[in-house]
Amino acid sequence: MLLPLICKGICHRFRNIGGGKNSVYKLGFKRCSECEIYIEFAGPRCPCCKLPLRSKKRNYVKIGTIA
Fold it and tell me: Is residue 66 part of a domain?
């Protein structure tokens, strides 16, 4: 039996910020895709939903820029 991974609200106790012009990843923040926040946390997984935290930007290329 698998338990659903959902946000339990625990992550809001950690320091979180919104996006901005500066890279939040360079400031030491990580993003949880399920909780949809950036948190300052040392572990590899979100303390709330236990999903892996993203520590780098997603690397994508726009279709018009491929030469």
Answer: no
Query: What residue ranges of the chain have pLDDT lower than 50?
Result: none
CB 28 within 8 A of CB 53: no
Asked whether residue 44 is domain-assigned, the answer is yes
In this prediction the pTM is: 0.67
Q: Is 62 among the domain residues?
A: no
Q: How many CB atoms lie within 10 A of CB 4?
A: 5
- Say if 65 falls within a structural domain: no
Q: For the residues of the chain, what is the DSSP string, one character each? A: -PPP----SGGGGS-EE---SS-TTTTT-EEETTTTEEE--SSSB-TTT-PBPB-S------GGG--
| Six token digits for residue 44 | 């590899």
